[in-house]
Amino acid sequence: MRWVGRFLSCSLILACGMATSQAQPERLELVHADELAGERSPLGTVRRLDGHVVFRQGEATMRCDHAIQYLEEDRVVFIGNVELARCGQTLRADRVTYLAREREEWAEGHVVVLDSARELRAGNLHYREGPEVGWATGSVVLRHLRTRAVLQADTVVYYRARGVAEGHGSPRIVQEDSTGVPVFTLTGRTVRWLDDSRLFQAEGQVRIEQAGSWATCDSLHFWRSKNVAVLAGNPTTWRRWERMTGERMEWHFAQDSLREVHVWGKATVVSEGDTLRPGTRQNRVQGDTIRILFASGDPRQVEVEGRATALYYVFEKTEPKGANWVLGDRIRAWIENGRVERMEVIGAPEAAEGKYYPERIVSLARQESVVPERPLPSRERGL
Fold it and tell me: Cβ–Cβ contacts within 10 Å for residue 193, how many?
């Protein structure tokens, strides 16, 4: 059996919807449609609605060009310019299948979810209103409008109420400044943000990049409120002519710039002493812990503690003048334009040691370092 109707106003449909909703609170109500056609069958009643279609359920309003409503199933398929609005959140898509009883949406095509603080764009989205969790797929971009953090991935699971988002499939988090320029990028096998993007986490083949510095590790936690990133599991930091390694590492930021790097456990820093001939003269510092301080993006001071050793090459302008090797409980070095300008060795006299190698025997200085001698690969030099 099939029936067809045309409505010039929504009053009749709204009245019918309200009547059926009295027995069950927040029942899905049809507010308006330009045209309505329906049929009854053993499988239930199906209504087809066209033109300026509007539904309502509690505080939620649904609008679209066309809709197919399965009355007994409490299921509606919204088609064309779909918009679902509820409690300050708006969902737009080409097509949405809405399960009224379960309060679930299956959105397809050009999906956009927007509220006062976040914007999600994806190819598809499955969203459950009760727990406020969504599964987005297809070139997903989740942007926090206040913190300017952006999560990109093939798939994102988003727990809206908890402020947690987890990306899989080439995931990356990009932190932007106020002008939209990326400040740093974080990638890994799994990348997530927590506490509404105040904490970033990454696991598996992690890489973080920031203004000329980049690092790799097995896992990373970045507390944005403290401006501290903790790298664990074979962490290594590279800069243009430097490489830092250890068992655990911290990056400290100030106004989106790298301010300090702390290294614990077999801490080592290797840098090119002669950037015109990479690999021929490599400065090295090693100890239980190393702290590197930066200014304007360049290292200015290095502090080494616990079984501290340092090998650095001496230049007079561009002319090589040999090398110094020192040993002590603590070493502090001041750097200018990539060269060691001054070094201080602290420790008991019987524990401190130092040697100078003139240029004619400078090759012997390499034997003092336990760090394997090898040039920095071009990738590590940033070439």
Answer: 26
pLDDT of the residue at 274:
67
What pLDDT score does 305 carry? 92
- Quote the pLDDT of residue 368: 52
Residue 122 CB coordination number (10 Å): 27
| Contact by Cβ (8 Å): 53, 63 | yes
DSSP for residue 1: -
**Domain boundary assignment for the chain:** 221-383
CB proximity list for 83: less than 8 A, separation 6 or greater: 62, 63, 64, 90, 91, 92
The answer to whether the beta carbons of residues 313 and 325 sit under 8 Å apart is no
What is the per-residue pLDDT for 318?
A: 76
Overall fold of domain 221-383: lipopolysaccharide transport protein A fold (2.60.450)
What DSSP string describes 16-55? HHHHHHTTSTT--EEEE-SEEEEEEETTEEEEEEEEEEEE
The closest of 308, 281, 318 to 370, measured between CA atoms, is: 308
Q: Which residues of the chain have pLDDT under 70?
A: 1-25, 273-279, 338, 351, 366-383
Phi, psi values for residue 247, rounded to 5°? -95, -25
Amino acid at 264: W
Backbone angles phi, psi at 16, to 5 degrees: -65, -40
